[in-house]
Write a structure and sequence with these properties.
single chain, alpha/beta, Rossmann fold, five-stranded parallel β-sheet, 9 helices, 57% helix
């Protein structure tokens, strides 16, 4: 049977709706792949620019930044005006979990069951996107500030270590938060960071040197 006759037989069965379904099923895998490739571009070129961070070009080394800084206004200010630019200025590509998955639509909903259910669905999407970003990264920068390391940050550190990713920790908080005087932070968190080949710095100005030593 010729190619022309095959095409004619397919599109003559089921009418226009069947034709549309065939086209959608053929195009969908390519569209999903394209959307995945655009995830990084979305937060690099739009969201970071909104906070005064220059647009960046793709670079070889991709750094996932684990932190709880996005929860507060002062944290976001430090994050986008100091921490992210410090990493970018070394030529690294930043993978920003606070921008990978948009949350504006859910945040705009009034409190109630609809908002709760929306968060339940989005939470799994956020967690999955963050995991994929860590998988595709070359390593982590983890913010360790607080009376204890943020639980989400600690989880990402553990996952990154299990995936063989180097981790550089930054703790500018002078408060004691370790299990004993022999550690800077929780001993298991510190173990994962140091055993990954990374280090912990106490000043933001020392971060570039640590990154270059760890990632090149």
């Amino acid at each position: 049977m010729s190619k022309e006759r095959v095409e004619t037989s397919i599109f003559s069965v089921g009418g226009k709706e069947a034709q549309n379904n065939i086209i959608i099923n053929c195009v969908k895998p390519f569209a999903e792949k394209l959307e995945a490739e655009k995830i990084s571009a979305r937060y690099e070129n739009e969201s970071l620019a909104e906070h005064g961070v220059p647009r960046q070009k793709h670079s070889q080394i991709r750094i996932y930044v684990a932190s709880n800084l996005g929860f507060s206004e002062v944290g976001r200010d430090f994050y986008y005006r100091k921490l992210i630019p410090t990493i970018q200025q070394l030529g690294y590509e930043v993978l920003d979990p606070w921008k990978i998955t948009p949350t504006d639509k859910v945040l705009s909903l009034p409190y109630g069951l609809k908002r709760r259910d929306a968060w339940r669905r989005l939470n799994r999407e956020i967690g999955g996107n963050n995991r994929k970003s860590i998988d595709t990264s070359n390593g982590l920068v983890a913010v360790l500030d607080g009376t204890d390391v943020d639980s989400g940050t600690a989880a990402e550190i553990g996952y990154a270590f299990a995936r063989g990713k180097p981790i550089v920790g930054y703790r500018g908080d002078f408060r004691l938060c370790s299990d004993n005087e022999g550690a800077v932070v929780n001993l298991q968190v510190e173990y994962f960071i140091l055993a990954s080949g990374g280090t912990i710095v106490a000043e933001i100005d020392r971060l570039p040197e640590a990154l270059k030593r760890t990632f090149g």
